[in-house]
From TrEMBL:
Keyword hit for Membrane: no
CDD domains in the cross-refs: PH (cd00821)
GO MF, one example: phosphatidylinositol phosphate binding
Lineage, uppermost ranks: Eukaryota, Metazoa, Chordata, Craniata, Vertebrata
Name under which the protein is recorded: Pleckstrin homology-like domain, family A, member 1
SUPFAM superfamilies, A to Z: PH domain-like
Record PANTHER family: PLECKSTRIN HOMOLOGY-LIKE DOMAIN FAMILY A MEMBER 1, PLECKSTRIN HOMOLOGY-LIKE DOMAIN, PQ-RICH PROTEIN
Origin species: Gadus morhua (Atlantic cod)
Length: 156
């Protein structure tokens, strides 16, 4: 999360943000890069959550600055610049990738849990070994209440 203060800081310092106005002046902003954001009331703090960031684009080095653009999920572009040695664009990109990876892992876990709940008990357990008498689980047929009587019951 890119914000203007608070939380456990992964990176803290000055960034310059290009204004949206007609003159598009660069304004210095104190920024703090955190994983979770500030604790408590944010008040006047502006936040840009990783969940709302699509990419970090257009990384260019010109003179003493590195210019980069943060593209939001709504398509809004926010231009920043920082001194070359600061490494803001790289740190934001790294933290964003780690955030997206954590979200993907959580999504997979959630999907697996839903599938297990829908499948019912016993799913995910191996089949018992075949009986020496030849009756395997595939020999089981559904009872008469499963068919309509017009055809023999199917094998499972």
């Amino acid at each position: 999360m890119l914000e203007s203060g608070g939380g456990e800081a992964l990176k803290d310092g000055l960034l310059e943000k290009r204004g949206d106005g007609l003159l598009q002046r660069w304004k210095k902003k104190r920024c703090v890069l955190t994983e979770e954001g500030p604790p408590g009331d944010t008040g006047r703090i502006k936040q840009l959550h990783f969940a709302n960031i699509r990419t970090v684009d257009c990384v260019e080095r010109k003179g003493k600055y590195v210019y980069f653009t943060v593209v939001t999920t709504e398509g809004r572009e926010v231009d920043f610049r920082s001194p070359q040695e600061a490494g803001w664009s790289a740190e934001i990109t790294l933290q964003m990738v780690q955030y997206k990876n954590r979200q993907a892992v959580l999504a997979v876990r959630s999907t697996r849990q839903k599938q297990q709940l829908l499948a019912g008990p016993g799913v995910g357990h191996p089949l018992p070994p075949p009986s020496p008498h030849g009756d395997t689980p595939t020999d089981i047929r559904p009872g008469p209440d499963v068919t309509d009587g017009s055809s023999p019951p199917p094998y499972l």
